[in-house]
Amino acid sequence: EGPAKVTLVEVGPRDGLQNEKTPIALEHKLALIERLAACGLKVIEATAFVSPQWVPQMADHAEVMRALRGRRHPGVRHPVLVPNLKGLEAAFAAGVDEIAVFGAASETFSRKNINCGIAEALERFRPVVAQARAAGVRVRGYVSCVVGCPYEGPVAPEKVAEVAAALFEMGCEEISLGDTIGVGTPRQVIALLEAVAQRVPLERLAGHFHDTYGMAVANVYAAWRFGVATFDASVAGLGGCPYAKGASGNVATEELVYLFDGLGVETGVDLKALVETAWWVSGLLGREPASRVARALGGS
Ligand code: HMG
Ligand code: MG
Predict the structure, then answer these.
(1) 62 lines ligand 1 (CB under 6 A)
(2) Can you give the residue ranges of the Pyruvate carboxyltransferase domain (predicted)?
């Protein structure tokens, strides 16, 4: 059996919203973050200090962080994505206290996502991580395409382990392994963890599973049994584009809370409040929650 307690990293306000085509009001983003904190989530990824040309929905990153500074829930951390030194400068100016750099195990995906290859990305991250750490800012490192790449197909666990180790060795305190297109199944996830755990301590790993093929809960369960104790998830299963195969949302946070409640594993998250939040945010976006747990339990 796996760890008795897990940390859920809520990525809905960032990963969940980044693909939404219609601009979402700052007030709604802030209300979402506040509701998630009130549900008991202690890590809520808030935004991304990326180029507004690349991801228009995250263009209000500085406003989000400034507003959050004034109304923080005690003990809640708000990491933000930072791709380069320009992003770090803006993140510092907005008062962030935790960042995440994001690399990939696929060369083509890396170029499509951040306009440079894997090796160059790692060199870009090095001073970002060093400066953040020097300022007392915690750093997480993502690796995307840990099972498969939308452009290159299957990705070898050894390649993922190499990138994960590079991020860990440059100072990332936690490495989040992203099945970006949700193609993985538990056997692949275990092979991946076996390879990565040889280079990065298991307790520093997080699982980040998109649910494109409906395998995310199975993958989380497998990773938990392997010993992973941190999982990224998105309220209501937000994220992705309904028309783009290979780009659906993250596993829904309420599905993981339901899973772990059933396993007797502590998450610290109130399922009922979370399901209400899933319905609330889905209503804002004009749709029903993607998650079956939210639909089964209903909105109030
Ligand atoms: P680039 O065009 O190569 O950047 O983009 P550049 O350095 O050549 O600069 C070009 C322009 O962008 C300049 O502006 C810069 O100032 C500006 P101009 O002089 O032309 O007016 N710029 C910036 N503006 C704001 N913030 C910045 C920044 N940097 C440069 N930080 C760049 C490179 C990385 C910026 C771009 O490719 C980018 O923003 N990419 C972000 C893509 C992204 O956010 N993807 C989604 C998140 S990753 C993800 O979802 C996966 C994950 O969930 C895990 C998983 O599921 O696998 C994490
Ligand atoms: Mg993601």
Answers:
(1) no
(2) 6-275
Q: What is the DSSP secondary-structure string of 52-66?
A: TTT-GGGTTHHHHHH
Q: Which residues contact 194 (CB under 8 A, 6 or more apart)?
A: 157
> Which residue lies with its CA nearest to atom 53 of ligand 1?
15
Reply yes or no on whether 172 is catalytic: no
N-to-C CA span, the chain = 35
Angle separating helix axes 118-134 and 107-114, nearest 10 degrees: 60
106 CA → ligand 1 middle, Å: 17
Which residue among 9, 17, 51, 143 has the greatest number of ligand 1 atoms within 8 angstroms of its CB, and so is best to mutate?
A: 51
Q: Check if the beta carbon of residue 177 is closer than 8 Å to that of residue 183.
A: no
**DSSP character at residue 7:** E
Question: What is the amino acid identity at position 29?
Answer: K
Task: Find out whether the beta carbon of 113 lies less than 6 Å from any atom of ligand 1.
Answer: yes
pLDDT digits (tens, 9 = 90+) for 202-241: 999 999 999 999 999 999 999 999 999 999 999 999 986 4
Separation in Å, CA 271 to CA 23, 132, 255, 278: 28, 34, 9, 10
pTM: 0.97
| E strands in the chain | 7-10, 43-44, 47-48, 80-81, 98-104, 138-144, 148-149, 153-154, 174-179, 205-209, 230-233
| Token pair for 45 | 């990824």
HSE (side-chain half, CA atoms, 13 Å) at 225: 12
pLDDT in tens, 251-291: 999 999 999 999 999 999 999 999 999 999 999 999 999 99
Cα–Cα distance measured from residue 211 to residue 215, given in angstroms and rounded to the nearest whole number = 6
Q: With CA atoms as reference, report the closest residue to 163 among 193, 97, 118, 125.
A: 118
